[in-house]
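Our consortium's second objective concerns turning raw sequence data into structural hypotheses that experimental partners can test. To show how far this objective has progressed, the report includes one record in full. It was chosen at random from the queue rather than selected for favorable results. The single chain below, 341 residues long, was entered without modification.
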Amino acid sequence: MGLVLALGLLFVLACGSSDDSAAPAAEKAAPTATPTTQLAVPELKIPTATPTAVPPKAGVTVAAKPKPTNTPVPTGPKPVYGGTVAIAEGGVGGGHRDPVGGRAGYAWDGLGINGNLWSQVIRFSLADKQTVENDLAESWSMSDDGKSYTFKIRSGIKDHEGNAFTAKDAAYALYRMVERPNGISSKRQGCMRAYVDPTPGVGVEATSDTELVVRLSAPRTAFLACFISPWTAITPMKYVKAIDDSGTYRDLDFSKGELMGTGAFKVKDDQPDNMIELEKHNGFFHDGYPYLDGYTIYAIPDANTRVAAFLSGKVDYIGLFGNAPTPADVDKIKKQLVTIR
């Protein structure tokens, strides 16, 4: 505290005015708290002097100053609904679809499917890149000792087949990541095994259809970062449990209807190493989403062919991670687009 006060004194001496009679600047109004769960960052506050009130002169009426009003955050233009998007990638999964098993890639056929086909309990907000927001959960809390998290799952969620989704589905999806029945690979969910209590029936539990409890071996500040990872994708247990109970693990099979979730899009067609097509899920539990009617990812291994498909208008998007166009391709695209204009 002494160091903080000393720094504050140095700051005042360095920034003080030569006019000792100048009134100190008014304090800024405290911002209104955002009504969502945030990963708070402690803020260093330096005490400042409180100005002495000056009594009004006789016969002069002092009007109360109006309270400052926060400027509303702009919401941007209204969304435009409809339409589809065609995406070109180097490959389309190679038959790996289960987010807890197989190769689990980063491209549009990995994360580009995970976040759209399946939901999460809570997730990282892409809107402000600062907060953790609810997804399948409508609220959540942490115990005082930091070892237990309780999530209230929304009522009325339906999967792509119209089946009710409950906390039991969520609990089983997390169980697969921690326990790995039949030797599931679960490459991207290692942090869940590192943090969640490994005691059978203790680490993950559905205490009711709407309450999910996750218990840790010890308090871990990194647990939330792990839990909001897009790889913590929650699959309904209807098909994955049947596969696990069979005694031999295999990937999810679209031809058997197993590629199914609760996300904004559902799979319309899946041809591994060729293409995957997703369409809008009209029963999505987030009102107003999604905007698109659907999107299709095409496997185009040759980079020159991907660029040609983009320039000809056959695809709307190319490039992500290792499949991004080279600097020479970017220059080529820029020149042709200028010529078209």
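The partners drew two points from this record. Residues 1-57, 59-74 have pLDDT under 50 and may be disordered. The first strand starts at residue 84 and ends at 89. Both points have been shared with the crystallography group to help prioritize constructs.
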